[in-house]
Amino acid sequence: MNDISNNYTVRSMNTITIKNVSDLEELFLEPICLSGEVYEEIEKNAWHIMLAQESNLQDITIEALENFFNKLIQIKEKQLDNQQATLYVWFDAQSSQLCFNIISGIVTKLPFGAKLNKVPEVSSIIRDFLNLLHDNPFSSENITFFDADDEDFDWEAYEEEFERNFVLDVYVRFLNEISK
């Protein structure tokens, strides 16, 4: 089992903006990079799903996105041709994006700087994504404003407390895992 939890900077990411869940089907055909070079795999295999402003939210449901991920897993396991890999899914609330990545091997310590909470079902990640979008994250009720000129505000303490308390939910699925 691999540990790739070092901090890193990804220079580019694959982003797809969708109106309907069916728009995601093009990802079934995307090749998987399994080079053994973690940073290259993260750069080439990470996908960030955004909703277009004119998205059909009736079509984009927990069940529809679960079905997409289940089909994605089946297709990617076939593409891998018995090679082992780790698929992980998370919701990036700051960017309002549902994200996933595939990296080679059975990886138990993922490349995030934050504390992780591994959830047993992808539906909880999808639920967070859809709930935030339905709650209009950009309304003034959902944004905390700070006065950048406030000399009494301790930014360093704020950031340290945030980092100490932030926990990222992640769904992890091992692809082509060999049963013991």
Structure description:
This protein is an alpha/beta fold. It has one domain. It contains four helices and eight strands. The protein has helices at 38-45, 62-80, 122-134, 155-165, and strands at 2-3, 14-18, 47-51, 85-92, 97-104, 107-109, 115-119, 167-175. It is globular.
How many DSSP E strands?
Answer: 8
Query: Beta-strand level of the residues, as a percent range?
Result: 25-35%
Q: Average pLDDT value?
A: 84
Biggest β-sheet: strands ordered side by side in the sheet = 2-3-5-4-8-7
Shape descriptor reads: globular
| Helix-strand sequence | EEHEHEEEEHHE
Major β-sheet annotation:
6 strands, mixed
Query: Helix- and strand-based class?
Result: alpha/beta
Considering DSSP H and I runs of 4 or more, what fraction of the residues is helical?
Answer: 25-40%
What are its keywords?
six-stranded mixed β-sheet, alpha/beta, globular, two-stranded parallel ribbon, disordered N terminus, 180 residues, single chain
List the helices and strands and how they pair.
Blueprint: E1 2-3, E2 14-18, H1 38-45, E3 47-51, H2 62-80, E4 85-92, E5 97-104, E6 107-109, E7 115-119, H3 122-134, H4 155-165, E8 167-175
Parallel strand pairs: 1-6, 2-3, 7-8
Antiparallel strand pairs: 3-5, 4-5, 4-8
Helix pairs in contact: 2-3
